[in-house]
User: Fold this.
Amino acid sequence: DQQVKQNSPSLSVQEGRISILNCDYTNSMFDYFLWYKKYPAEGPTFLISISSIKDKNEDGRFTVFLNKSAKHLSLHIVPSQPGDSAVYFCAASVTGNTGKLIFGQGTTLQVKP
Amino acid sequence: SAVISQKPSRDICQRGTSLTIQCQVDSQVTMMFWYRQQPGQSLTLIATANQGSEATYESGFVIDKFPISRPNLTFSTLTVSNMSPEDSSIYLCSVQRALEYNEQFFGPGTRLTVL
Assistant:
């Protein structure tokens, strides 16, 4: 039972353009969502998060959008840079429950110079 | 965010042996977790390491196979016991300041290969 899904295993964009990574979830109890970036041989790095009471959160080049009715969130990176090339994971949790994060399968982003 | 270190960073082990992985945080945190990332897969929670009490295991993970210790608020260990090649994975610890804070921060991981 895959409660968090990232249906695109990979994405390739040109430097300077926008990268859009998508994530869908099935559990309506999730009320907090996070994006992590992972380079090979490193642990995941926290990027940005959003609470279900919001529909948008922005931090520099990174913006996360949440559509609760569609159970869908997306991460926008603009402008994309070659250093953004990594695997991106979305994760979901229920606030104040156990702290458990449910991760999607990840999307490999390649930003071409 | 906290600074998290893990030892060892990688290891190659023989079938049937055990390996203990250490996780050290530079500040006191309420919650510590252990995750596994199998090759080509996502991250899966193994257990929550509880300070002063037994760890809370997720479905499919048992204490005999993955014993966990958490003697204080800055340190935890995960042991992978009686290893088989299927245990080859990256093992990651993560920390969360307290239950009401949703963000978790991850250590660099331990890459384990079992022959």
The CA atoms of residues 87 and 108 of chain A lie 4 Å apart.
